[in-house]
């Protein structure tokens, strides 16, 4: 289990699962695997007759978002985002890192009718970005990792807001209100986890969590938001224990399984010129748009936040910017939501996310290695980033 907690291992497993899905989809096994992913499972009485792919993206992925929400709450309360002075620099970089790739995407898709896909290239995969930094960043000061983590957490927060606002249609207000009550009950129960009743209360919390997910799903809001809400309201100490227990399962099963199912697409046998505008928009926006946006945001944030909290050098900002285009998990989810009505464009979007992320991995690995080597030569005794 300790190996799966490693950022290096998590990144490797995630990449391996995505590559495996893409390879198998383009073999004789592809049609059979696609049929399995499209198989409906679950009781229709509760509107839970979902496909296997939907159970993975809507159900299992809620675990990942729960862990991300607990991390977000920790950073906002006692971590690197606990005051506006600390949060200002990474917040500006994160916002610019969302705006720039969105504008690049919109420029490529102008007039195509696919403008709604602009959120796809705006996300940064926390686990993967930190994994690449851990692999190639020996010698970098710890503040680089801290800044990357803060930026990625804020990036996830923006992604959560985007999913909640732009990918929710005709919400069922009754189910939504019931979900809010259920979330409040979950938070209250988490503060009662002590003494003899600890076991029964834990079981009750699991049932309430499942009920919350069902209500959010029924409300029309994307059900992964249930994981976010539960992570934000759970009492701090129990939440840290639960995420510690769930982390290996998230890294070793949930995220790889989602990457595998999302990457399970056949490579279209068409000339490059016939690939859709969203493909090119995502492919360019992830490595280029994120790099430009985070770099400019890092520079601007450094100017505005000078003397306020922790700032980052230009070299450190370039390291973070080079890793920002690794989209993977959240970008793949955004892609599924944005192009749900067009399987062909959705599949091309998956390929673009994978290719754009791979470009960022290569560029980020090179950048991190070069800057880390420079730091090791200039500051041989400075505290280094850990893996």
Automatic annotation (TrEMBL):
It is found in: Cell inner membrane; Cell membrane. InterPro entries: Na/H_antiporter_dom_sf, NhaA. The keyword Membrane applies. It holds the Pfam family Na_H_antiport_1. Gene3D superfamilies: Na+/H+ antiporter like domain. GO terms for molecular function: sodium:proton antiporter activity. One of its GO terms (biological process) is regulation of pH. The chain crosses the membrane at residues 55-76, 88-108, 120-140, 147-167, 173-190, 197-215, 221-237, 249-267, 279-300, 312-334, 349-372. Its main location: membrane. It catalyses: Na(+)(in) + 2 H(+)(out) = Na(+)(out) + 2 H(+)(in). It is a multi-pass membrane protein. Keywords: Antiport, Cell membrane, Ion transport, Membrane, Sodium, Sodium transport, Transmembrane, Transmembrane helix, Transport. GO terms for cellular component: plasma membrane. Na(+)/H(+) antiporter that extrudes sodium in exchange for external protons. Belongs to the NhaA Na(+)/H(+) (TC 2.A.33) antiporter family. This is Na(+)/H(+) antiporter NhaA. It comes from Humibacter ginsenosidimutans.
């Amino acid at each position: 289990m300790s190996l799966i907690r490693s950022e290096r291992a998590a990144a490797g497993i995630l990449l391996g699962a995505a590559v495996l899905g893409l390879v198998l989809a383009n073999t004789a096994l592809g049609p059979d695997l696609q049929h399995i992913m499209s198989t409906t499972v679950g009781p229709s009485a509760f509107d839970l007759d979902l496909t296997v792919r939907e159970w993975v993206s809507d159900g299992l992925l809620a675990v990942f978002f729960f862990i991300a929400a607990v991390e977000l709450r920790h950073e906002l309360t006692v971590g690197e985002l606990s005051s506006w002075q600390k949060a200002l620099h990474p917040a500006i970089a994160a916002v610019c890192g969302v705006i720039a790739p969105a504008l690049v995407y919109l420029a490529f898709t102008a007039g195509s009718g696919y403008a709604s896909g602009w959120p796809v290239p705006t996300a940064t995969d926390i686990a993967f970005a930190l994994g690449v930094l851990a692999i190639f960043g020996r010698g970098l000061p710890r503040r680089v990792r801290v800044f990357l983590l803060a930026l990625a957490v804020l990036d996830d927060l923006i992604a959560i807001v985007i999913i909640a606002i732009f990918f929710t249609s005709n919400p069922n207000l009754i189910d939504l209100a019931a979900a809010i009550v259920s979330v409040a009950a979950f938070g209250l129960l988490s503060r009662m986890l002590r003494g003899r009743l600890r076991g029964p209360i834990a079981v009750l919390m699991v049932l309430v969590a499942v009920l919350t997910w069902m209500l959010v799903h029924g409300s029309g809001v994307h059900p992964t938001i249930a994981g976010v809400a539960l992570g934000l309201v759970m009492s701090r100490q129990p939440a840290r224990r639960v995420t510690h227990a769930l982390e290996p399962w998230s890294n070793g099963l949930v995220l790889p399984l989602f990457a595998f199912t999302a990457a399970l697409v056949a490579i279209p046998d068409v000339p490059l010129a016939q690939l859709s505008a969203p493909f090119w928009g995502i492919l360019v926006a992830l490595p280029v748009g994120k790099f430009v946006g985070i770099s400019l945001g890092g520079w601007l944030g450094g100017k505005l936040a000078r003397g306020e909290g922790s700032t980052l050098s230009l070299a450190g900002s370039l390291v973070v910017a080079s890793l920002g285009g690794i989209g993977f998990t959240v970008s793949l989810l955004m892609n599924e939501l944005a192009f749900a009505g067009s399987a062909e464009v959705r599949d091309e979007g998956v390929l673009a996310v994978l290719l754009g992320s791979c470009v960022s991995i290569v560029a980020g690995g090179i950048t991190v290695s070069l800057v880390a080597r420079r730091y090791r030569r200039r500051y041989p005794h400075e505290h280094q980033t850990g893996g």
